[in-house]
Fold this sequence. Notes:
It is a single chain. The strands form 2 sheets. This protein has an 8-stranded mixed beta sheet with strand order 1-10-12-11-13-16-14-15, sandwiched between helices. An 8-stranded mixed beta sheet has the order 3-2-9-5-6-7-8-4, with helices on both faces. 38% of the residues lie in helices and 24% in strands. Helix 10 (363-373) links the parallel strand 14 and strand 15. The protein is built from 13 helices and 16 strands. The two termini are 47 Å apart. It has helices at residues 2-21, 28-42, 46-58, 66-82, 140-145, 164-179, 220-231, 284-303, 325-333, 363-373, 394-400, 411-417, 430-449; strands at residues 85-98, 102-108, 112-113, 117-118, 130-137, 154-157, 185-189, 215-218, 237-242, 245-259, 264-274, 310-317, 341-349, 356-360, 384-386, 404-408. The chain is elongated, with a radius of gyration of 24 Å. Mean pLDDT is 95; it is low at 1-20. By secondary structure, the chain is an alpha/beta fold. The structure holds zinc ion.
Amino acid sequence: xxxxxxxxxxxxxxxxxxxxxxxxxxxxxxxxxxxxxxxxxxxxxxxxxxxxxxxxxxxxxxxxxxxxxxxxxxxxxxxxxxxxxxxxxxxxxxxxxxxxxxxxxxxxxxxxxxxxxxxxxxxxxxxxxxxxxxxxxxxxxxxxxxxxxxxxxxxxxxxxxxxxxxxxxxxxxxxxxxxxxxxxxxxxxxxxxxxxxxxxxxxxxxxxxxxxxxxxxxxxxxxxxxxxxxxxxxxxxxxxxxxxxxxxxxxxxxxxxxxxxxxxxxxxxxxxxxxxxxxxxxxxxxxxxxxxxxxxxxxxxxxxxxxxxxxxxxxxxxxxxxxxxxxxxxxxxxxxxxxxxxxxxxxxxxxxxxxxxxxxxxxxxxxxxxxxxxxxxxxxxxxxxxxxxxxxxxxxxxxxxxxxxxxxxxxxxxxxxxxxxxxxxxxxxxxxxxxxxxxxxxxxxxxxxxxxxxxx
Length: 456
Ligand SMILES: [Zn+2]
């Protein structure tokens, strides 16, 4: 065993050593500044402290909430204090969904309170609630095979979490799947790895031609409990009460701050995250941290007096979670300069180790990004993974055919607290925040300053 490990270490050294020496010469003028930026990002825990200030002061930042408005005003003031340039807001109209009071109980066997979180976009129940027998299903196929049983029931989707992309369809579309078969409400096992009996909220949508039924998430533990009761032949009944509703759209704002390019200010490297959050937690990992680490790119350049040739533009997008109106609004307001975007970068998957940078774009651009990635070897982040992008940078990037990057943390840790009351700054390591800021800042600096624009 031990010898095998030693052999593996030798292989690793042999394989990685030459690539570290093969850094292309064109990067030489950027090495010193990239090293300085990386060192400055890691010299302290400034970024974590800023995240803590944001989440401690303003808490959750649901679209349309006063908290989000106050946080936006703070971000504008703070960007100005940082010395960023062209700091301003850009107005968009956003939906305002209000959760209201909500509760869930098992009425047979009597009587048990169950933790829940209504899903964003859900309608209310009648004031007395909806009480009905529960039908537990393990998949859409299972539901459709037993479709005749669904009428008048509360359908519980007890779907095991595999990955977010596969499992989230039951959160976003489960209510309409169940309503189509005559169900009166739907519940979904929280979308994430098993936590500490934590429900996860998140967005949902109704299909047009089907009745709108109320819908909520329950912890995995409670979904399993109901499943076991049903397996024993118990006719489980539950009562769901929800006051959820949409109010009229309200005004909100993307926050913009820049480092203006010294030679090609019209060419833009766009970087950001979303400033809104769901309401149960503090929106620390999703996505306060993404806002802070991308904002750091501009703050650190300003602090070290490093001004690249192209403009670095930080955007804190509003309303990603339940509307993407911020990302769409940015595209509409910047359509005239969409093609001038050289690269767009989003951080909206946390910073939990092991984290990585991902890239989507042409092979020619990937080669350049991979070469720049060699500068991140001191962070252990030199490998650029396939797949970059994000909900907020997607619209402008599609319009301008812009290459995209994403900073992504470990998905297991990320989705364990995602959209839960446990999304707080306590769970995030200051060093992981600094490392994200370091990697993003060095990458963005070189792309913004290199002689040739990144090929499209
Ligand atoms: Zn997010």
